[in-house]
Design goal:
single chain; 11-stranded antiparallel β-sheet; 37 strands; binds 1-deoxynojirimycin
């Protein structure tokens, strides 16, 4: 019923708003510069050819942000499409639609932009290239497209010439792109553009005046990931992740590159509610996705990370029938949707050194899948399957159909996968074209079996969840697990305040929050650098349609703060960022999709945070019971991080809420409509 209603709303909105107008006649072609402006004229993007070389530039509110920067692609077989070009045609159009996410952080998303398509030909080969620009009010984007043409067959791309030539040597937060040890799991560093390494995107920068800029890409399909290399002060260049033979991208004939995206916001908090990346992806390809559902889960997981259990066989084996039953009972008692079970299948005994051992349809003898699937069904809890590949993508692909068919047979609807390893198949980067295609093949195969994916050691998200709504969450950044075993003791206090402005802009992150045993018993050199209240705030601050209550069940039993984790939804009607500053502090509120309830997360890094926020996001005239999970008077991040208090107050939309956070502290609030 809900789906039908949503579909009706979606169709209605689409029909009313679609208005693609061709403005080809009105091209503003002064001095060979062709420009478009975003619908509210906030951003503009400009194109010119100078001596046959293509350039673009970007302005925000009339101020130059990206100076003339080169465009183009180089090939092994053909002349460069970055020089000797002649424009043969250009077309402008506008589009204004609204679409509905089947699940997400925002239900209805406005997609309003101006587009410019430049078609150009290379003088000697006569090869045509199209460069497509879009100007949105929250940023700009462009992509290259090579239409099918007689003089082009096999294509090897050797270089993308795209540059981002900023007016200032902005400071930004980045992680290195070619660190095979930890892939995307580095801590963000902050430097000027001129001082950075070759880096992953999203790369988020801030100007001295507070303008926030983030470079990323959208719709990464059959192409290499784009990383960025520094070319001096304020200058970045696209760096495509190569195949093991050095070629960047191998294609048959025609292609479209992913969109190169530049999100622009007058304050960093607005980046978090920019949906530019999703807008640049293709609509849902899977048809009826009513089977795709956000969820909250627990799992046989943290116990392995803190060395209480093992993944492999033996006395400490975690994934036994008895133990899994115990977790299912706990999930059922507390209303969780799923229980993740890692270490159930053959192959773990030499992990992480093992490479060829994983079998995705054979259980360890002490794990009875048939019995457990029946038991879970009776208890109305789903088992969340797990496929660790150790980076052996070839073996995984060979077993893929059987692996998903096996899970389907046992009613398993969610699968977490993993690719711990420096490379895939011991040769290819995770984020090269090979990896991009591998991960896509897995998502498509999973969809065929009605399975939703949560990918660890993934490639970065680029919004393909819009096209494949079963691609739900992923890691691709340092998760909570680092607190259990990182040699430097755990994630720093600023980590979850950096993520929403950087990696979080790309898409959902399976961070696995909820560690109540903050000091981590039995691991004297490790701990979580968050107070318990800050752990709770992470459920709102970090967006994921799949959120885990990561700690051991015994650490939740009889703890009244567990109620917040039980109450907080993972599917939202809308999201509002009330305040925040990159790596420092953040206050987010989100409204549940199914009720009038709102949830707030607030957290700070080292500095004390004090602010009073208006509750005007609440539905007017409605009374709410607000339950506040706060750091207590005597909470101290270093010495007493688990002290908290719970306060209940009645509030309405005209009220104000003072927020006072201690160093490393947080606040979580549920607002229940009464
Ligand atoms: C790394 C993943 O991030 C973690 O969640 C998982 O438990 C291990 N790999 C084993 O697959």
């Amino acid at each position: 019923m809900k789906t039908l209603k949503s579909l009706r709303a979606y169709l209605l909105i689409s029909v009313v708003l679609i208005s693609t107008v061709s403005l080809a006649e009105n091209i503003n072609n002064i001095n060979n510069i062709i420009s478009i402006q975003s619908p509210k004229k906030k951003n503009s993007i400009h194109f010119k050819l100078e001596h046959g070389i293509p350039y673009y530039a970007v302005n925000h509110k009339g101020n130059s942000i990206i100076k003339w920067s080169r465009l183009g692609i180089e090939f092994k077989q053909y002349p460069s499409l970055g020089s000797n070009l002649k424009v043969i045609e250009n077309k402008k159009s506008e589009s204004n639609t609204t679409w509905e996410q089947p699940w997400g952080e925002e239900r209805f998303i406005k997609n309003n932009y101006t587009e410019l398509v430049i078609s150009a030909k290379e003088a000697f080969s006569n090869i045509q290239i199209d460069i497509i620009f879009r100007a949105y009010d929250d940023g700009v984007a462009f992509r290259y497209a090579l239409p099918k043409q007689a003089n082009v067959s096999a294509i090897d791309i050797t270089n993308e010439m795209t540059e981002f030539n900023f007016v200032e040597d902005y400071e930004g937060w980045w992680i290195p792109a070619y660190d095979s040890k930890v892939r995307y799991e580095n801590l963000h560093r902050k430097t000027k553009i001129s001082e950075l390494d070759t880096i992953h995107t999203p790369f988020t920068m801030e100007s001295k005046k507070g303008l926030a800029i983030s470079i990323h890409e959208a719709a990464l399909t059959n192409f290499a990931s784009m990383t960025l290399e520094s070319r001096g002060k304020g200058r970045l260049k696209a760096n495509l992740v190569p195949w093991s033979d050095g070629i960047k991208v191998k294609l048959k004939d025609a292609f479209k590159t992913p969109w190169r995206t530049i999100q622009l916001a007058d304050k960093a908090t607005d980046l978090i509610t920019s949906y530019l990346i999703l807008n640049l992806n293709e609509p849902n390809k899977l048809g009826d996705v009513s089977w795709v559902k956000p969820a909250k889960y627990i799992g046989i997981w943290w116990a392995m990370h803190v060395k209480k259990y093992s993944w492999g066989s033996g006395l400490k084996h975690g994934a036994t029938t008895e133990n899994t039953k115990r977790y299912i009972d706990f999930a059922s008692k507390h209303g969780f949707d799923g229980v993740l079970v890692e270490g159930w299948n053959i192959g773990w005994d030499n992990w992480p050194k093992s490479y060829n051992d994983f079998n995705y349809t054979k259980t360890y003898p002490d794990f009875d899948m048939k019995k457990l699937s029946k038991y879970a069904k009776r208890k109305k809890v789903g088992i969340i399957g797990h496929h660790e590949t150790a980076g052996n993508s070839e073996s995984y692909e060979n077993q893929l159909e059987d692996a998903f068919a096996y899970y389907k047979k046992y009613g398993i609807k969610y699968v977490k996968s993993g690719y711990v390893g420096a490379t895939l198949n011991k040769v290819e980067w995770h984020h090269g074209q090979y990896g991009v295609n591998h991960y896509r093949k897995v998502v498509e195969t999973a969809a065929k079996y009605g399975i939703m994916m949560d990918v660890h050691e993934p490639i970065k998200p680029t919004g393909i969840r819009r096209t494949y709504p079963n691609m739900m969450s992923r890691e691709g950044a340092r998760g909570m697990e680092f607190d259990a075993w990182d040699k430097n003791g755990g994630n720093p206090v600023s980590h979850i305040l950096t993520i929403p402005f950087t990696r979080g802009l790309a898409g959902p992150f399976d961070f696995t929050p909820g560690i109540f045993d903050v000091m981590i018993a039995g691991k004297p050199n490790n701990r979580s650098n968050m107070t318990l209240a800050k752990q709770l705030s992470a459920y709102v601050l970090i967006y994921s349609p799949l959120h885990m209550a990561a700690d051991l069940p015994e650490n939740y039993e009889n703890n009244p703060a567990f109620q917040f984790i039980k109450d907080v939804p993972t599917d939202w009607e809308t999201t509002k960022v009330l305040d925040g500053s990159i790596a420092e502090n953040l206050v987010i509120v989100r409204k549940d999709r199914d009720t009038d309830n709102w949830f707030l997360g607030a957290a700070t890094s080292e500095s004390i945070y004090k602010k009073t926020i208006a509750l005007d996001f609440l539905t007017p005239e409605k009374m709410y019971e607000a339950t506040l999970y706060k750091d207590a008077e005597d909470t101290d991040l270093k010495t007493n991080p688990t002290a908290f208090i719970i306060e209940k107050i009645k509030v309405k939309s005209t009220d104000k809420l003072p927020i006072h956070l201690i160093s490393g502290g947080g606040l979580a609030v549920s607002f229940k409509a009464i």
